[in-house]
Design a protein that fits this description.
The chain has helices at residues 22-30, 32-38, 134-154, and strands spanning 7-18, 45-51, 59-66, 71-82, 86-95, 98-112, 115-127. It is an alpha+beta fold. Strands 1-7-6-5-4-3-2 form a 7-stranded antiparallel beta sheet, with helices on one face. Helix 1 packs across helix 2 (32-38).
């Protein structure tokens, strides 16, 4: 089987206002136990590999198998961290061992009267058979931000 070699690019910006102080929203990313509590696909995935190294140059890994589905692998490197202000990562995704994309994502934390305005900006390059996957990436990120909102509302820390 011949794979058509092609690239596609997709970018998106998602903004959410969370009724929690910046420090609380920040800690949901910066503290491993808190991130484990909301990150990922929840019960839809069987966790496999996990690594967490929150520092500039540090790497995160999240791998899991969707029930009756593919193995998803996320590997991120932190390129910039300014406490309570921003996190910038580059990350790669694989599906069943096939490299599907490389992305740059910036996460911004802004105090507002009601809590925190969180902005996620991402630009991705999708490879070969995954060239049309940009809308799915945005939808997946929306799901993560919903999970973050539920986690923050739960009061767990």
């Amino acid at each position: 089987m011949t794979i058509e070699r092609r690239l596609a690019r997709a970018g998106f910006t998602l903004t959410r206002d969370y009724p929690a102080p910046v420090e609380r929203v920040w800690d949901a990313f910066a503290d491993e136990d808190q991130k484990l509590a909301w990150w990922g696909a929840g019960d839809a995935i069987e966790p496999r590999e996990w690594a967490f190294d929150f520092r500039v140059g540090g790497r995160d890994v999240a791998e899991g198998k969707f029930h009756r589905g593919p193995v998803s692998r996320y590997e991120a490197t932190y390129t910039d961290i300014v406490e309570h202000i921003r996190i910038v990562t580059t990350y790669d995704m694989w599906i069943d061992g096939t490299h599907m994309s490389t992305s740059v994502a910036s996460l911004e934390f802004e105090p507002i009267d009601e809590g925190t305005r969180f902005t996620h900006v991402e630009h991705g390059v999708f490879f070969d058979q995954f060239w049309a996957d940009g809308p799915n990436r945005e939808q997946g990120t929306r799901g993560l931000l919903e999970a973050l909102g539920k986690y923050l509302a739960s009061g767990l820390q």
